[in-house]
Amino acid sequence: MSLFKARDWWSTLLGEKEEFDQGCLCVADVDNSGSGQDKIIVGSYMGYLRIFSPHAVKPGEEVQPEDLLLEVQLQEPILQLEVGKFVSGTEGLHLAVLHPRKLCVYAVTGTLGNVEHGNQYQIKLMYEHNLQRTACNMTYGPFGGVKGRDMICIQSMDGMLMLFEQESYAFGRFLPGFLLPGPLTYCSRTDSFITVSSCQQVESYKYQVLAFATDADERQETEQQKLSSGKRLVVDWVLNIGEQALDICVVSFNQAVSSVFVLGERNFFCLKDNGQIRFMKKLDYSPSCFIPYCSVKEGTINTLIGNHSKMLNVYQDVTLKWATQLPHIPVSVKVANLQDLKGVIVTLSDSGHLQCSYLGTDPSLFQAPRVDSREINYEELDAEMKELQKIIKEATETDILPKSEIQRDVIVTAEVSPDLDAESQAIDSEVKAEAVPSVTVKITIQSRVTAQKPNLAVCVQAPLAVTCDQFIFGDLEPDSSETVVLSVFLKGNCSPSELEGNCLVSYITPTELNPDGIPKVAQCNFRLPLRLICFPAQPSKAASHKLTIDTNKPPVSFLTIFPDFVDPSENDQVNSLGFQFLTGSKTTLLASKTSQRYRIQSDQLEDLWLITKELTLRLEEHFKKQKCKDFACTFSGSIPLQEYFELIDRHFELRLNAEKFQELLSERAVQFRAIERRLLTRFKDKTPAPLQHLDTLLEGTFREVIALADAAEENQANMFQAFTKLKSATHLLIMLISLWQKLSTDQVAILEATFLPLAEDTQEL
């Protein structure tokens, strides 16, 4: 409830279901009474013309009937009202009424009444102009600098300015580049018309230029004639404001300077009459109407701006001086002198709420009614409080987090066979080794509740593959289980970066509240054996890349931690192991006899990763079985950054090659289609023409496309291998950094999230 309300001096509601807009309100001494007292003239789209002479009304009293001087219904909607010296031979004020297809000028006269009914007012039609085009709005003024009379300019809906010298039609001109009509006004100091075009720019046209430009009736002439005639309508100045304008107004309180005010949809502009911006104000509301009304301080202008929040703001240039609340959204605002009261604010809403108000404060006299006192029953209140606390406790105890693994509705487990398959299940493997082994994984799904549409997906990192990765089951009953068996093998011709897999079961559990069921997911991980990708071989003494892992415990025999790679018949003191990868490379693991160190060496940096990881995992498991809690591995050597950067460069080079192949393929495909179109045109032609070697060109282009596609495929395979190697090397680097700096599990997870964000290599990511 605003304290700063517009104080209601006089108000009334016009008609029933009538509509009003910006041009429907005018304030002037239209009956030439000479008293200096303004009358309020209102026209509606229903064709009603009303003239009021308001008198002060006490709060609670009705508007007096004699305040309405005249009410007459004209035949057509009233678009705009203006008062000026529109009749020749007299300098008296007359009323101009703009209809869609007619302009009428009336004289308003009053006759002194002899009885108590008061004075009588009537309007007399002085002249009218029938319009050839539908009107939008009008402006008036002493065009061409004439003295003692006003002329009228009407803007049509299709962009024609029609000028009338009082009783006679002068000429019509089309605005250049016109699309939709905008607000129009006349500036007497520069003798020019100012409008805002659909290009969202303020445009000024001199009256003299309009008068001497090509007549609108001759508009059909050719462009060449128009250029040669020298009579084209040229704009005087243009200013881009970047938004549509609601209204435009020219004021000149000081004769030396006249200002052009433009109200936009989000900004309020003040321009000099040569088109330069004096100032602008960004509005934080949606304005509906405005009027610059006076100059209180030298060099400044006060403006009223109404908005769609039923507020009327008073600005001095760009400074907000006052804000007042109105009972309606104003579509037009004027300032009038009424009954010895100067500066009354007259506002009109689109539904016909006409109000005369002044600024002030309206203190709220509201007092809260006294509450009837009554006896309070504390026992009832206590019982109600306990009941409410019980409800709150029950509501807050509901756990929205997923239940622990033991209480889960569906549990999925994966069991990896300790031995490799006697008969390998590998299919379509690209590995060039003599035999590609496979290992069996047994997956069991146990359901404690009814699980609908269970779907099992098994994922392993390429180049590993599974014999079947998708399983769909029927609905599972409570306390039932399903088991599937599948095999994992090495499919691609490179070593994987991880020896881990993932099982994921998606299912739906129906509930009482939701019969369609709630989708849920259960998952588990499994670890694959190292024997799946490599087999025992003779240790190699020479190698390009070497790593040394320090421990705080005496070295453990390889027979204990790598029983699957050491022949049991060999000596217990085996201190070297060879790992031959299926892809061809070899890695050697050495244990120091004197110190607590292990060395891993290979010709390829990426091959060190899986052996190093397997070594640390098996050592941790060994000491965990012996209940030794303080076992730790460390790394104190240099991080192999140079070799790592070489892998990055190689991968990046292959990515660039992939882009290049894609561009070349696209070019050749476009060329191929163009040749095909040419050939098709030749073949369709009724009179056969020579092919001009187009068939040879087609065959050559086809060969190029096939060769490029083969090269792109080969590059893609190389890029996948480079990506896998880079991923393995990144894993190794993160592991070495964590061992070197003794990082916690959380810190290692942050490093992995930073350096290993991608699960697969694509051009898009």
TrEMBL record:
Q: Which InterPro entries match?
A: PHTB1_GAE_dom, PHTB1_N_dom, PTHB1, PTHB1_hp_dom, PTHB1_pf_dom
Coiled-coil portions: 371-398
UniProt record, GO biological process: cilium assembly
Q: Which residues form the PTHB1 hairpin domain?
A: 638-741
Residue ranges annotated for the PTHB1 platform domain, each copy included: 529-636
**Record domain PTHB1 N-terminal: where:** 1-363
**What are the PTHB1 GAE domain coordinates in residue numbering?**
434-526
Q: State the Pfam families in the record.
A: PHTB1_N, PTHB1_GAE, PTHB1_hp, PTHB1_pf
- One Gene Ontology cellular component annotation? BBSome
Tell me which UniProt keywords the record has, alphabetically: Coiled coil
Q: Per its record, how is this protein called by name?
A: Protein PTHB1
The species is: Chaetura pelagica
